[in-house]
Amino acid sequence: MRISLTVLALTVLVVDVAFADDRLQPPVPRSDGRVLHVDFENYSDGIVQPLNAGIRWLGDPFSGRKQGIVRVTRGDAFAGRRAGWVSTTTGDEIGRIRLQPRYDAPSVAGETVTEFVFRGDADAAMEDFVIWSASSAGDKHVGLILHAVKKSDEPMFGIEVTHASTPGSTRMRHSRPTAGTFAADRWMRVIQHRRPSEKAVELWAGMPGQEKLLGVYFDLDAAAAVATVELGDTSPQTARGTGTWDDIRVGGLLGKNSKLSQPEPPLRDVSQERVTGVGPISVGKRKQLFLDDQVIESQQGLTRQMHPVRKHGDNPLIVPDQPWEGRSVLLYGGVIRDPETKLFRMWYLAWGKHVDQPSFVCYAESADGIHWKKPTLGLHPFRDSTGNNIVLPGWSQTSVVFDPHDADPERRYKALLRYNGLRGFTSPDGLHWKDVGVLIDQGYDGTTLHWNPIEKQWVAMVKIFKDGKRARGYATSKDFFNWTDTYFMSAVDQQDAADDEMYAMSLFHYETVFIGLLRMYHTQSDVVDIQLATSRNGRHWERPSREPFIPTGAEKGDWDFGNNSVPATPPIRVGDELWFYYAGRSTLHNEIPNDGAIGLATLRLDGFVSMDAADQGTLTTKPLRLAGNQLCLNADASAGSIRVEMLNGDKVVSSMPIGGDAVRHVVEWDTTQLVPDGEIRLRFHLDRAKLYAFWME
Questions:
Q1: What does the pLDDT read at residue 277?
Q2: Which residues form the signal peptide (predicted)?
Q3: Structure confidence by residue, pLDDT tens digits, 512-535
Q4: Segment among 273-282, 476-485, 654-663 with least mean pLDDT
Q5: Residue from 691, 661, 355, 589 nearest 683 by CA
Q6: Is 105 within 8 Å of 225 (Cβ atoms)?
Q7: More confident position, 12 or 387
């Protein structure tokens, strides 16, 4: 039996629908949960910001409002072990649970059904307590908003309904009296059956298995799909209440030809996605470094040594010397060397927060990478003048990258800015930018944009929180415009100091590895420095050292004393060096005002780490297949020598001794010996030498 809605043409709503004979009651609609099915069982405790088993937010931890209690319970659930629980006892508190479908969740065409089970608290009052509120992707209410109302000394509560005043209207109406009364200490199920062709919603409620049709109401936005759900005390005004939710579903009608979708899976942990090598490692023109043990089978007498950068003697190279730059210029942006003009191009942030003015993304360029100019671009006003180098006004942390792969030249440059979410921008020249809207909503400041050339996709290294500390998340996109959810990637471990947090991380692919420049925040000293991380897939990371790769200044007053940061772009090769631009601050992280400038640090080519022999040592590789005619080394044997052996079973071919310091030594073999074919191992004999990398040419 289907309820006729022709009466809706005459009246705003139908309430207290009653049937003299229960056999006339239409069948209860149920949801298949294909869009969203949250049972709280797979929730990962302590992780904030990523979509976590369907849960987007527990409470409002960064709103600055007075918080009630919001948690996922252990026990006291309708089914299973866990449920969502909210309690606010005063009108000025706020406490809500926000749910969201996965980025790849299926859609439902036509009629949809939402449902949940709920239980109040017999001893707690409920005033305007939202037990259901759903919104569209455009952040407009859809379906019905349901409020629980109860006095503290009453055992029953009622449901009040906010709905559209007329079909298709944007005006909302709050219905009184309540639609039904229910025992506050018992579980009940509430169902909304949305019928978009009639712009109406059937509201059902009752004890599970005993649901009744309470009324039919006009849908707040009948054409829109559910994109988010909010439960609890969503207002810091007079609302308050206590309640528990479980088995929340959004989807189509559950029928004979459909099945209930599985609950939302656990948060994906990409740190567990290790690269497992099978067969011999192919060695060609891309260099094999020793940041990890990927190519090492065994070694004796060697130590892995991380090499910090060398800071340029003219630092800082860029300082805040223009009115719109305030007291701080920071390298939240990018630095590239234009492939055609060979100019160094930089996008940086003029940070206005502590001087009571907006922040701006600005542009500078240089012929040699040392001496920089800030061209007058005439694009954006500052104090009624466009005589400045501003390219994007009014935002904070930024990534700017050059994209040679996009077929559309209007999108040659891309930017990701933090502004009400992480917004995307595209540009043909890096100067004139187009806003393409919010791309990632599951991230904070300290999120950076990068290209993964191996998997041919964009990667966002996202700032999240784990157990109250800053940590790293991971999201990807094939086209820059459509992104996955944010997943958990990494956090501090037992080798870090107890007060350390991972503030941010930029990554780049270098030869055969991903390298991460990790901003480590030492909260006890309030210092932020840069450490090294390495990965074979950009997801599972190892850290070859916990010492700073780009250390902060040694003394109070140094321009980079307290807080270093790096851009989203990779280092630039200049001759036999890698150039790392970075921002430093003469103040600590939380000091105000915050004074910042931009400088340069350099590194030997491939010089991140070396395998060092203080006396004598050996390193034997895993099985290799060599693709090329010459074996080359980056090594410093100026104080000793290096010999190489090529091993294949009982066959051994030895090289001539290598001496001196060079980024490219060509290995010369003893030609009286036959070079083994096929799968081989290399054994390096080091005598007071450093080995950085090897490769074939």
A1: 73
A2: 1-20
A3: 999 999 999 999 999 999 999 999
A4: 273-282
A5: 691
A6: no
A7: 387
Q: Which amino acid is at 537?
A: N
**Cα gap 238→63, rounded to integer Å:** 18
Alpha carbon distance 468, 454 (integer Å): 33
CATH class of this structure's domain 6-251: mainly beta
List the domain boundaries for the chain: 6-251, 281-304+609-696, 310-604
pLDDT grade, residue 9 (50/70/90)?
Answer: very low
Q: For residue 97, what are the CA distances in angstroms to 68, 87, 147, 376?
A: 11, 11, 15, 48
Of 496, 488, 540, residue with least CA distance to 520: 496
pLDDT of residue 3: 47
How far apart (Å, rounded) are the C-alpha atoms in residues 372 and 376?
13
Return d(Cα 420, Cα 440) in angstroms, integer.
10
Nearest to 415 by CA among 321, 351, 336, 354: 336
Q: What is the pTM of this model?
A: 0.92
User: What pLDDT score was predicted for residue 430?
Assistant: 97
What is the H or E stretch that residue 528 is in? Answer: strand 527-535
For residue 613 the two structure tokens come to: 């022999």
Give how far Cα 129 sits from Cα of 52, 118, 179, Å.
Answer: 24, 12, 15
Q: What is the pLDDT of residues 639-658, one digit of tens each?
A: 999 999 999 888 889 999 99
Asked whether the predicted pLDDT for residue 347 surpasses 80, the reply is yes
Distances (CA, A) of 256 to 112, 114, 248: 16, 18, 21
Residues 6 or more apart whose Cβ sits within 8 Å of residue 234? 94, 96, 130, 133
Superfamily of domain 281-304+609-696: Galactose-binding domain-like (2.60.120.260)
Closest among 685, 674, 589 to 637, alpha carbons compared? 685
Q: State the pairing for strand pair 596-604/577-585.
A: antiparallel
Question: Which residue, chain included where needed, has tokens 């930029």?
Answer: 506
User: Is the four-CA dihedral 604, 605, 610, 613 of positive or negative sign?
Assistant: negative
Looking at residue 18, its pLDDT comes to 46
Mapping DSSP onto H, E and C, the string for 443-470 reads CCCCCEEEEECCCCEEEEEEEEEECCEE
Task: Report the CATH fold assignment for 310-604.
Answer: Tachylectin-2; Chain A (2.115.10)
Q: How far apart are CA 234 and CA 239, in angstroms?
A: 8
CA nearest 535: which of 418, 642, 455?
A: 455
Asked, as a colleague might, if the bond just before 381 is cis with ω within 30 of 0, I would say no
pLDDT at 676 over 80: no
CA distances from 223 to 51, 137, 188, 358, 396 (A): 25, 12, 28, 39, 36
- HEC readout, 356-414: CCCCEEEEEEECCCCCCECCCCCCCCECCECCCCEEEECCCCEEEEECCCCCCHHHCEE
Apex 489 CA angle, 484 and 494, nearest 5: 170
Amino acid at 372: W
Give per-residue pLDDT as tens, 126-172: 998 999 999 999 899 999 999 999 887 888 999 999 999 888 777 77
- CATH topology match: 6-251 vs 281-304+609-696: yes
Q: For the chain, how are helix, strand and coil distributed in percent, rounded to 5?
A: 5, 50, 50
| CB of 461 closer than 8 Å to CB of 416 | no
